[in-house]
Amino acid sequence: MATGSSKRVALLGTIAHYLTAFVVLLKGFDKLAVPGKVGFAVVLIVIGLIILFGTIFHHRFEKALKHFAGIIAFLEAVTMAIVGYLYMKDGKELIQYVCFFAAGMFLIAAIIHFTNPKVRTSKH
Questions:
Q1: Were both Cys, which of 4, 81, 89, 98 would link to 103 (CB 3.0–4.6 Å)?
Q2: CA dihedral defined by 47, 84, 15, 61, rounded to 10 degrees?
Q3: In terms of pTM, does the model score above 0.85?
């Protein structure tokens, strides 16, 4: 039963990464239409693509980079906090809180990854 539970957790983590990449890419493409924000839009799109390809090819990247999952979780935390701030600045009423919550959860995941040796050695 433990393997079924760990597979479910891995699947939920993969879904979270894909959703994060989707949100970041959408915000990047949204900022392309704003004059003077093209550079910021390109940065968001690149980060979204890094998260997307990091999720698709995570097994290969984990072999090359010891803390790959923790680095991606930290990158997602920072990016979702920025996206939440942008939503707040755009005058949105609730979605920024979802982004801030996601940023907090990704930050907790990154901290757990960097401090717990069992998490670093687990295989998805």
A1: 81
A2: 30
A3: no
Question: Are 47 and 75 in contact, with CB atoms under 8 Å apart?
Answer: yes
* 36 φ, ψ (degrees, to nearest 5): 85, 0
pLDDT tens across 5-33, in order? Answer: 778 888 888 898 899 899 889 989 998 98
The tokens for 88 are 């707040």
pLDDT in tens, 41-80: 999 999 999 999 988 988 888 888 888 888 889 999 999 9
Q: Which two tokens stand for residue 86?
A: 């942008």
Q: Are 26 and 33 in contact (CB under 8 A)?
A: no
